[in-house]
Amino acid sequence: MKKYMAVKSKFWIGHAVAVIWTTFSIIVSLHWISDLGQLVSLPVAVFIIAGISYLPGYINAFMVVSLLLDRQPSFKVSDPDIPITIIIACHNEKENIGSALEYIKQQDYGGIIKVIVVDNNSSDETAKIAMEFAEKLSLPIQILRESKPGKNHALNKALDYVDTEYVITLDADTILHKSAVRYLVSRIKSAPKGVCAVAGAVLVRNSRQNFIARIQEWDYFLGIASIKRLQGLYQGTLVAQGAFSLYETRVIKALNGWPDAIGEDIVLTWNFLKNNSMVYFEPLAVAFTEVPVTLKHLSRQRSRWARGMIEALKLIKPWKQPIMYVKYMTGINFIMPYLDFIYTFCWIPGLVLAFFGKFWIVGPYTLFVLPLCMIQNGILYNYQKRVFKRLGLKIRKNKLGFVFYVLFYQMLMSPMSILGYIQEILNLSRVWK
Question: Which structural domain range is residue 62 located in?
Answer without folding.
Answer: 7-72+335-425
